[in-house]
Amino acid sequence: MRISFGQYIPGNSFVHRLDPRTKLLGTLAFMVFVLLIKTFSAYLLTAVFLAAVFISAHIPFKYVLKSLRAVLVIIAVTFIINIFFFQGKELLWSWKFIHIYKDGLIFSTKMALRIMSLVIGASVVTYTTTSVNLTDGLESLMKPLKIVRFPVHEAAMMMGIALKFIPIFADETDRIMKAQTARGSDFDSKKFMARVKSYIPVLIPLFISAWRRADELAQAMNARCYRGGNGRTRYRMMKFTKLDLIALLVFLAYGAGIILFTYVFKTF
Question: pLDDT tens digits, residue range 89-109?
């Protein structure tokens, strides 16, 4: 079980050198643009945009597949539900109570493409940004919330720690499953209850390991006299550069293209 989300890929590309705040805001804008998409031509533009981002970041194509593998079940379930329950005018196939319409097929395909685009776009941030930089960027963007006494530093730190531990727990789950397989557990059984029972010996040690790691992290922070974000300084200061301006212009061009292909040209 290899989960790539949350994994950082070292590099010195254009995307790697962007300010983390630029990447976070860009990802948020990208998600909004994707949610506005209604045409296949706009999804094609999104695919070209994502391909250009991955190429400029020097991220191998296999990581795109790894990002999607974790949500294949969600994509499949969403596609099936929409294709069976969405009604339209032109009936393509019918059997007893099952009816598949052309509009339902088109809508289901667009929903699957939307989920894939969102997952791939969000994964670029974790691939090209360290957990420390992500935490600093989140904290900087959430600073206005301090007016209402929101614990900005603590919230950003928790998000950073959660992202950092995703690949760690994925690897640990993989090791535990291999160990249980060697002891006779059958994770590929055709019987549903048998598969559920086989995962119990995995969840218990994984929960214990997570509790132990959390306790060790808390002790390490206490030993270093961690007292929150008050008075803390940073070794490296974040600042916007010309690269961030270029990235902003690229995002604006992509957003303009989405609006044109979705609301102006209204192509298929």
Answer: 777 777 777 777 778 888 888
